[in-house]
Specification:
Blueprint: E1 2-13, E2 16-28, E3 33-37, H1 44-51, E4 59-64, E5 67-68, H2 74-84, E6 85-88, H3 100-110, H4 115-128, H5 144-156, E7 162-166, H6 174-189, E8 193-198, H7 201-204, E9 209-214, E10 217-221
Parallel strand pairs: 3-8, 3-9, 6-7, 7-8
Antiparallel strand pairs: 1-2, 1-4, 4-5, 9-10
Helix pairs in contact: 3-4, 3-5, 4-5
Length: about 220
């Protein structure tokens, strides 16, 4: 369960205050498959950073699995984030100098998983996204769809309860976009909570519930 209550965020510039999130309330239940539709360029990264506990709100309450996390020290937040949420970035965020296997293994090494076990789990994740034949390839040798599969494998290798995907079909053609969503369908069927941030109605339609955010507020839920 993920619950945000009274999220408000503003920034100051040129002696003025600019509101970018205005009292947003969100509640996403365990094992849900949800799209948050958000116009492109409308501060969605701010909300995503708050959900991933990389940024603070001006006013808020935030609960993960019924534990309030907004008032915790950063060390405790890091532990909860590590155990519960992983991010699939819009631009893949792959490291240019390491191959596919090492990309996927990296989060496990940050958790001090032994190399042998990390390699085994990473290969399982790579096979799950149908990319085992590319395990030694570098990012510049991959297509956009293959890079996105690496990003998804890197997310699922730590076995998070929640996967947060930022425009996961960005810059992909229609067929490839549907293949990405097929993979999220499969992960949701394995009891993962999937949250997809998108501005594309056809992508939102693939999920089981849609939350529409506009003018800094949640305006509609289906």
């Amino acid at each position: 369960m993920l619950k945000l209550k009274g999220i408000k965020k503003s920034y100051k510039a040129w002696n003025q205050s600019f509101v970018v999130l205005n009292w947003i309330d969100l509640e996403i239940n365990e094992w849900e498959y949800v799209a948050i539709m958000w116009p492109s360029g409308s501060w969605k990264s701010t909300l995503m950073n708050i959900i991933w506990m990389l940024d603070n709100s001006d006013s808020w309450e935030y609960y993960i699995n019924w534990t309030r996390v907004d008032n915790l020290r950063e060390s405790k937040r890091w532990k909860i984030r590590r155990e519960n949420i992983w991010f699939v970035f819009q631009n893949y965020s792959l490291i240019p100098r390491i191959n596919v296997l090492e990309q996927v293994k990296l989060p496990l090494l940050y958790q001090w998983i032994p190399h042998k076990e990390a390699t085994r789990r990473s290969m399982e994740a790579i096979k799950k996204v149908w990319l085992e034949w590319k395990e030694k390839n570098m990012p510049n040798e991959l297509s956009g769809w293959q890079k996105q599969r690496v990003a998804i494998a890197r997310a699922i290798v730590i076995k998070p309860k929640i996967i947060l995907a930022d425009e996961p079909t960005w810059a992909l053609d229609t067929k490839t976009s549907q293949e990405v969503m097929d993979l999220f369908d499969e992960l949701n069927n394995e009891w993962k909570t999937i949250i997809v941030i998108t501005h594309e109605p056809e992508i939102a339609d693939r999920t089981k519930r849609t939350i529409i955010v506009r003018d800094w507020n949640v305006i509609h839920k289906t």
